[in-house]
Design a protein that fits this description.
With about 200 residues, this protein is α/β, with parallel strands linked by helices. It has helices at about 25-30, 45-60, 65-70, 80-90, 100-110, 140-150, 165-170, 180-185, 195-200; strands at about 5, 5-15, 90-100, 115-125, 130-135, 150-160, 170-175, 190.
Length: about 200
């Protein structure tokens, strides 16, 4: 493992928008529920967004099993698997996501089972989403800070509002295909548009 400035580098990547399509947008397209297209690119407050999603799913009688069926049919973004395989051959990599294990496992299989830190869902007896359980508040940021405390130099890449604190906490934060407004609001971060550019930044 290559060392930089006396430290070993580790890369922390967001999942949705960086390695796989936005799960909720895919669900919105399959169910034709327009409101489910909202993501952390649109609503910075994650709790507001998740409560809204749970309410909309209940209103439209969409159960967890329906969402999981949609996710099973999803694929990584074009070029993502090759990028991740190359990066993992050069750096240790952790995927830090605000998604849920109940959603992510089919996609993790298609990406070759990278390490994933995310959250858990709870359903009611009928199979509807009832609650979401965060591993911890601000989990991405805290994971980066913890890695730094145990001696790693951390590089992080993400695309949305919920990645910003992770990018700020890292030794190097990189935006990958972000919306224009995020680039404008956070000019301190490098911006990459292709996996080739991102790989070059990370290694």
């Amino acid at each position: 493992m290559q060392k930089m400035s006396g430290q070993i580098s580790i890369c922390c990547l967001d999942l949705e928008g960086v390695l796989v399509p936005e799960i909720w947008i895919s669900v919105a397209e399959k169910t034709r529920i327009k409101e489910l297209r909202l993501t952390t690119r649109d609503v910075p407050d994650y709790h507001v967004l998740m409560r809204r999603r749970i309410s909309v799913l209940r209103e439209h009688r969409i159960k967890l099993a329906v969402i999981q069926k949609v996710i099973t049919g999803m694929k990584p973004l074009p070029g993502a698997s090759a990028f991740l395989n190359k990066l993992r051959s050069l750096r240790q990599v952790i995927v830090l996501s605000d998604t849920y294990y109940e959603f992510a496992m089919p996609l993790m299989k298609k990406l070759g089972w990278p390490s994933l830190f995310c959250n858990r869902l709870e359903t009611d007896r009928e199979g509807y989403l009832a609650r979401y359980h965060l591993r911890q508040e601000n989990g991405k940021e805290k994971a980066v800070k913890a890695l730094k405390r145990i001696g790693f130099r951390v590089q992080a890449a993400g695309d949305s509002y919920n990645d910003i604190e992770m990018l700020k906490a890292a030794d190097e934060g990189i935006l990958f295909r972000p919306p224009v407004r995020i680039v404008s609001e956070f000019p301190q971060f490098s911006v990459t548009r292709t996996y080739k550019e991102l790989l070059k930044k990370l290694v």
